[in-house]
């Protein structure tokens, strides 16, 4: 099969998200200028640079997350472990601006150290970020938000032999459609030498 996206795919469901998978989930927490908290998962998310460490996520629509980041210039990326599957899903509901996703999902928000923003208590890791740029992308209200990581929280039980061990919490990843997966096993692979 071949198709050009501009002409449509002819399938019952768009295969694009399933092709580009698995995708890590950035569970983005923010605080609005009014002090209200927001928490939402984004599967168009990834690390993009080492030094300084930087992450990005993409948002479709002028959501509360984007508005809060524009107002405050900060956000926190919380890592989602398998045990947080249901709270993560609960936080994805399209709630009103004054609703609190932390409360809806039954989560405790705790303060970040380097930015004025909440983070998810018990998350395997959390990356405190200062927004560096917001890019408007092609299409209807598509945005890419970039941030420099200014603080890193790691849950102690996720450190083993000096390494962040993803099998300790089994990170949740998004596939296509309504499908998710978790990382349960890892293997090492050396890069070839010259």
TrEMBL record:
GO terms, molecular function: FMN binding; oxidoreductase activity, acting on the CH-NH group of donors, NAD or NADP as acceptor
Pfam families in UniProt: Flavin_Reduct
Domain Flavin reductase like positions: 20-166
Record SMART domains: Flavin_Reduct (SM00903)
Name listed for the protein in its UniProt record: Flavin reductase family protein
Source organism: Roseovarius spongiae
């Amino acid at each position: 099969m071949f198709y050009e996206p501009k002409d449509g795919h002819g399938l019952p469901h768009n295969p694009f998200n399933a092709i580009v998978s698995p995708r890590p989930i950035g569970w983005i927490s923010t605080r609005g200028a009014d002090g209200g908290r927001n928490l939402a998962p984004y599967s168009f998310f990834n690390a993009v640079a080492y030094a300084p460490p930087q992450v990005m996520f993409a948002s479709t629509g002028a959501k509360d997350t984007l508005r809060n980041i524009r107002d405050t210039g900060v956000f926190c990326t919380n890592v989602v472990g398998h045990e947080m599957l249901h709270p993560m899903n609960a936080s994805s509901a399209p709630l009103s601006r004054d609703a609190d996703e932390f409360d809806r999902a039954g989560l405790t928000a705790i303060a970040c150290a380097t930015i004025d923003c909440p983070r998810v208590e018990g998350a395997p890791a959390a990356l405190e970020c200062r927004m560096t740029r917001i890019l408007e992308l092609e299409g209807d209200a598509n945005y890419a938000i970039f941030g420099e990581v200014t603080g890193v929280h790691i849950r102690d039980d996720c450190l083993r032999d000096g390494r962040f061990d993803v099998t300790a919490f089994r990170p949740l990843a998004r596939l296509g459609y309504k499908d998710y997966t978790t990382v349960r096993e890892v293997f090492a692979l050396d890069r070839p030498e010259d």
